Every structure is written in structure tokens, then in C-alpha cells.
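Trying the structure run again after the queue cleared.
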Amino acid sequence: MFRFLSVGFVGFAAIVVAFAASIGSWAWWVVVGTLVLLAAVGVYDLIQRRHSVLRNYPILGHMRYLLESIRPELQQYFVERNYDGRPFDRDVRTMIYERAKGIHGELSFGTERDVETVGYENFVHSTLPVSEPDEAPRVLVGGPDCRRPYSMALLNVSAMSFGALSGNALRALNRGAALGGFAHDTGEGGLTPHHLSGGGDLLWEIGSGYFGARTPGGTFDPHLFADTAARPEVKAVTIKLSQGAKPGIGGVLPAAKVSTEIARYRGVPAHVKCVSPAAHTAFRTPRELVLFVARLRELADGKPVGIKLCAGSRVELLALCRAMLAEGTAPDFVVVDGSEGGTAAAPLEYEDHVGLPLTDGLTLVHDALTGTGLRPNVRIGASGKIAVGNDIVKRLVQGADYTNSARAMMMAIGCIQAQRCHTNLCPVGVATQDPRRARALDVADKSERVRRYQEATVRQAVQIMASLGASDPGELHPGMLYKRVSPTELRSYAELYERLDPGQLLTEPPSTWAADWAAADPDTFRRVA
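Done. C-alpha cells:
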């Protein structure tokens, strides 16, 4: 309603001032002209479809673009801060927007980075770069027990639920995924018509609330699960154990966002805060988790089933590996979510102090699976502040097979990171259940932006790989990425992190792993001995 009132007010003011001008000084006609021009701008803002801010905030919304044109740092400070208060780097943020809009993204005048700063990272290029492949590499996800493996893109849409995002936002993401040939994770809020609208490949996420596969009492319902998993759009299933931004606690959807529609798809009361349990009820031990994975794979008629977690205890991870070995089966993939991942709402203490960052978690999961001989059959995905091509290559170097992105995908459909996600007052219609705000997001326009962003980012990642001498992700290794550890010393990731040989934990565990390996028990997530 505000958008119509603001334009109407300007039009009414123009009429009032015109009457004053007719009986007063001619100078009032200048004001009339200005007001008429503003009213015309407002009408245009209401009917155009490219800018969600202007559709929701006609006339006033131009202040955002004025700040952007005058000084990008002002825009970063006022309206583009990250969920957890740590903003994206300005060049990265600009690159996401430009790629989504199809604008050539190269910059003049060289790097703005202080390459001698401790923590700075750089790839080691090859003297003989290879040619880029005609098509971007893809990763086949599906272990020995999977009958219907899925070909995964190098960059996909990470988990975002209906509830966290508006229906229009999910429609744009899904249609963009269909246009670009990459996957769209549903998030744990259930599979909805918004996810299914665009024909994109879906990774159906099952959290501890079992939304979409839930009994009235809140436990897992195998019959509902099997019915939904049979949909042709569902290409794989992910069991969410924990989330990077808030590992160890369940998801929360504020009451203001639990609309009647959301309540119907989740199987919960409307207009009441929806809280997922911290832990699953379908399993309590590593062995039970592995058997639950196998059960879901059968219920899904052989489609890939994996787990998503923010890495924490090494003993727990090794206990899970022991359970896989004992039962002779394993997840088809593991998505490692870094603690730097974003969320619409989480306690600050969790965002900043719980869970392993993606680099450490990814390395831990890769080494645990490698050391137990499981790695060849288990693919690893990486998510957590992945935005541009070098982010993808960095995670592939560190052990991932593919990556997922949430924040950058949201920015591609218009998110300005206004930090209003939990209030239902998102100004651009991305993270809101208010239909008046969500209508500002034009699905057709934003889905093309998602496609362009993903395509350009993967293309850049493939170009970087070729510069390193690799035409396939399998040719990348930790020795290709260096980190400055002091003002005078650079070290490669091969030197910084211990790497286990295939099956090494089964034969002769290194001293740094021996105690944790001995303490890992497939029948408990607790440390033994």
C-alpha cells in the first residue's frame, strides 16, 4: 500500500501546488514541474520489473542507486551488510551483481589487495596452462548402492527454505537452475509448488523437523517421504544434521513468517513460531544414521542420499566412518557447511564461535573419508560464503567435488542484505512472506540473472583451473594453493594441513590421529576410552 500512497501523495501535492501557482507567483510552476516529474518517475517505478527496490519503494528507492553511484563504500555500509555483520568484499559483491545482470566484470588498474598481508591466499599458475574444456566439468554423485546417480554442476543453489525465502524468490531460483542446468536445494522447510514451478533439478533436504515427511506427532513418516521422493524433479535427498551458521541448534522460523501456506506444507500450526529440534529422532547413533541413509535410498528408489553437516568433533566423524565400514554402506555424498555460512536468524554466539570454518571442516571430512578408504565412493560438496570463481577452485583444491551457494544466489535475485530477513520486512521481496513485498520480485527477470551469474562464475572457475594446468577438478591438489603465514613466508596447503593416504587409518594411523581413531565407536557419538 505504501508504494501507491507515496506516488499518490506526490500527484496530489502537484495538484495542490498547481492551484497555488494559478493564483500566485509563477515560481510555483517550477515546483509543479518537479512534482509532476517525480510522479511520473513513481508510476514508472511501479510498472517496471527490473528493480525490486523501486517496485516496493517508488521514488525513494532511487536513493540506493544514488549511493551506489556516488560512493560504493557508502552503499556497503548502509544497505549491503552481510547477515552476520561481516560484509562481502566490495569487489566480490559488485562482481555478483554484474554477472547476474550480464555485465562484463573485468576491472582496471590491477589488484586492490595487499598481497603481503598475513592470511592472503594465491593460486600457483602453470607455465603451460591447458585449454579450457568446451563444457564445464560435472560430478557424478552416487556410490555403489545408488541405482540412479546424478550429474552435479560445480556450483549449485544451496539450501534455502520456503519460509526463509518468498515463493517468488524460490520460483526465480528454480527456474534459473532449470535454465542453467544446475541443482536447487530445497532447504529443510519441505518441498512446495514454488520449488517445483520452474522444472529445475531438486535436492530435497530433510531436517530434524521432517517437514514434508512428517507424522502429526513430528516424527519421520516413510510413506509421505516415498511419495515425495518419487517425483521426477527430486534428483537426490540430503539429511541435514547441522548448519554452518548455527550448528547444534534447530532451525527457527519466526511466527510472523509462518503463514497459512507455510504451515500447510510443513505440517505445523500457522502464525506460531516454528522450531526444529536440535537433534533427529529417527536415529541416535552413527550406525543408526548410516542405516537411515540406506533406508531413505531404498524408499527413494535408488536415488542418491547424503548428509549435510558443519564439522565439529573429529571423534564423531570417525565414529560415523567406522559405522559405514561396519555396515558396508555409506552416504552417496557429504555436504560440508562452513561456520562462516549465513542464516536469516541465529544467536550471535553461534555465528561467531561454534563449528569449524569451511577450510578446516572440508579438510577434516576429506581426510577422514580418505583415511578409511571410503572417499572414492562418497562425493563431497562445500558450502559457506562461496561467491566467485576462485572460491569454487579453492574448495576443489581443498578436497570438495562441487560447491553450493546461498547468499550469492540471493544477491543474484536482488537481495541487498538489508538484514530484515527475520522481520518479514525484506525491502526487495526475497526473504519475506508478505505478498505485497514479494510481488516486487519479477520471476522471469531474476531467473535469467541466476542463470547468468552461475554460468559466468563457473566459466571463471574453469578458466582458473586451466591456468593452473588442470582441465578437470580431479587434477587439482593442495600444492596449487598458497597462504601467507607471516610477512616473509608463504606455505602451500599441502604443507599447512596433514593429508592422509587412502586407507591409512585402517593400517597404520598417524600419531596425530591414533587417539581419536581408537576413541571412535560406531554405536555412539560420544568419545569412548
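Residues 2-79 form one domain. Worth checking whether this holds up in the mutant runs.
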